[in-house]
Amino acid sequence: YIQVDTSLSKEQLIDKFIGTNTGCITISNINISGYNRSYDEISYGYFTKGTSNFDLSEGIILSTGKAKAAEGPNATLQSFYGTNWGGDQDLIDILIQSNLPHDNILNATSLEFDFVSNLTTDQISFEYMFLSEEYQSSNCLYSDAFAFLIKKADNSEPYQNIALVPNTTIPVTSLTINGARDCLRNTSYFGSFNTRNSPTNFNGQTKVLKANAQIEAGTKYHIKLVIADHRDSYGLYDSAVFLKAGSFVGSKSLGSDVILCPGTSETIDATTANATAYKWYKDGEEINGETGYYEVETTQNTGCSLKGHINVSVQEEPQIYQDPFSICDDDLDGKTQVKLDDYTDRIVENYYSVHQVKYFETKQDAKDNISAGITNFELNNIQTS
């Protein structure tokens, strides 16, 4: 199971977050707030994966409950409520801005600091996971709230939230990334519903996600990472954000995610000015090739590092039913009008999982994508039986 240590100071937690890039990113004005009454009643801390198979080796945990309670196994419901433990106005403001429910925000934990990037890049990023007791097959209505807020320091401009579903402007919640049958959303970013022997004491989790922000090198920014309980007046169903140690780095864009047709290939270019070394990773391991979650770590001649990532997958081929099926000529006039969409699931076996289906009169029309295809087709000279 994961292990959580709540004894580290705010400076020590930031040092874990920044990792080896300390000389490339200047940090100041650190503040952490949440619940802090005794060693086992603190809502933030430092975690390590121990001997478990948790997706992050080590980092920072920010919880809406007791951070120590996040340790596995997944045997109890985390539903801690701290006396006079309030919400967070900045989080409420961003929820209003994103048209998300903002009532009953309480039990907030936040980590914030100023930083100046000395990296030769206009992007900064870090990796994280969202875990929650609210991941349940019966819950499609509510989610605890969290946001990663950034703006220029000493500035009255509003915060920007960078905790978003990849390639969208949708905030990450247990509703917007979910693998439950009744509320499937952005399932490619959902990790798992957890069994009793999970490394953590949470019901479910996302995959490792990346938060990205556009910045100007040499300019001071303020960042605030905040999570809070939502709607449940006594802080039921706790959640936590796990921040990967050493992942707060400059970001290198590798382009949009790649979906390959079978038998094809794609070149991913990570060329970076002043780079002295490149390391490629697939699903966290140094690699030679093939599909997966690719990362590149670029070391520049200043000693600073940049990281980039891209998903590469192979498109599943459609499985076409080979058996014929019957269509009725109800008035026995030798012809009938057929709405083709009604028969898609009888033609393409795996239609609902991955494919969009269009119908065309000829194979060449399909190759040329003539118009939008056809939806109705008249069958003539039907043999009645």
Q: Which structural class should the secondary elements be placed in? A: mainly beta
> What is the helix fraction of residues, given as a range?
under 10%
**Biggest sheet descriptor:** 14 strands, mixed
Rg is 25 Å
- The succession of helices and strands, N to C, reads EHEEEEEHEEEEEEEEEEEEEEEEHHHE
Residue stretches low in confidence (pLDDT < 50, at least 5 long) are none
Q: How many β-strands, per DSSP?
A: 23
Number of helices: 5
Q: How many angstroms does the end-to-end distance come to?
A: 66 Å
Shape: globular
Beta-strand content: 25-35%
What number is the mean pLDDT? 85
Description:
With 385 residues, the chain is mostly beta strands. Helices cover 8% and strands 35% of the residues. The chain contains 5 helices and 23 strands. The strands form 4 sheets. Strands 1, 5, 6, 8, 11, 12, 13, 15, 16, 17, 18, 19, 20 and 21 form a 14-stranded mixed β-sheet that branches. A 5-stranded antiparallel β-sheet has the order 2-7-14-9-10, with helices on both faces. Strands 3-4 form a two-stranded antiparallel sheet. The chain is globular and about 80 Å long. The model has no long low-confidence stretch (mean pLDDT 85).
Descriptive keywords:
mainly beta; 14-stranded mixed sheet; 35% strand
